[in-house]
UniProtKB/TrEMBL annotation:
Belongs to the FAM136 family. Pfam families: DUF842. This is Protein FAM136A. PANTHER family: PROTEIN FAM136A. It comes from the Eukaryota. One of its GO terms (cellular component) is cytoplasm.
């Protein structure tokens, strides 16, 4: 019975979320992606300017999404408290060593109480949904900010050149996913579509991060080798003058490492651009 009630509440909440997504959130999401695509299309803008522009575009949708998540979280908390109260009430009635019949009786009482909780909270959903729709319909600027939710967005790579075009294409693709008013797909299908749109960009970002990480590792190994080589030359009881000489050797070696790796950067960038221009399937790393 408990499993049936869980499925019942999950279905009711899922239907509400789908309705909220199709009629409110998706429209805001379309505007966000269109706005972000325009940011990325500005070839004269700097990386920081584009990023700030994209972040501004995201604020209305993030605010709306935070609000919906907060309200659903509050709803789930109230339902859980109701069920926990049922559990506490039954525990008080049970004897220290209950018989099987007593356990069965109290289990039945708990389940009936839990069903009442579900009935009550399912009954609250229409009013809750009406309130949420009213808030969302007023526009993102009227949505209260929820301080207890934190959404972390990881931004990889540098959105310039090919990468910026790919970012723009991702947002344009996502707009088409969200703007499918003819088919009215379910929210999970829309999200799958958006995820697919993001795949080329994510692969590019992952590839760039890996290559830059490998570059840093090689530079660090070179500097560490300088450190090991110099330390092997330092005898015991070295005076200050000799230590200064060894430090100078280490610094010269480190500068050589940096110079060497700076010289590598143009070739590395050409190789990365070649891979990126070949498309996501060409992006492989260990």
């Amino acid at each position: 019975m408990i499993q049936q009630q869980r499925q019942r509440i999950e279905q009711a909440v899922t239907e509400m979320i789908d309705d909220m997504d199709k009629n409110h959130l998706r429209k805001i999401q379309v505007d966000m992606h269109r706005c972000a695509a325009k940011c990325c299309e500005d070839s004269d803008a700097s990386v920081e300017t584009v990023q700030r522009c994209v972040e501004r575009c995201s604020k209305p949708f993030n605010r709306a999404q935070n609000y919906v998540h907060h309200e659903l979280g509050e709803f789930q908390d109230r339902l859980q408290r109701c069920v926990m109260q049922c559990n506490d009430d039954i525990k008080v009635k049970m004897s220290p060593s209950p018989s099987e019949d007593e356990v069965a009786k109290h289990t039945d009482q708990f389940e009936r109480c839990a069903v009442k909780c579900v009935d009550k909270h399912v009954g609250l959903l229409p009013t809750m949904m009406k309130t949420m729709k009213s808030v969302l319909a007023k526009g993102p600027e009227h949505i209260p900010q929820m301080q207890n939710l934190v959404f972390v967005y990881c931004l990889f790579g540098i959105p310039s050149g090919w990468h910026r075009r790919t970012t723009s294409e991702m947002h344009s693709c996502a707009v088409r996913c969200c703007d499918d008013t003819r088919k009215q797909p379910r929210m999970d299908n829309v999200q799958s579509c958006i995820d697919e749109c993001a795949t080329p960009l994510l692969k590019a970002q992952d590839y760039m991060q890996h290559e830059l990480g490998q570059f840093q590792v090689r530079l660090q190994r070179c500097v560490m080798q300088c450190n090991d080589d110099v330390r092997s030359l330092i005898p015991n009881n070295t005076n200050e003058a000799d230590m200064a000489r060894f430090r100078n050797q280490f610094e010269r070696c480190t500068i050589q490492c940096v110079d060497k790796h700076i010289d590598i950067i143009p070739n590395m960038m050409r190789a990365m651009k070649s891979v990126l221009s070949s498309g996501p399937n060409a992006m492989r790393h260990a």
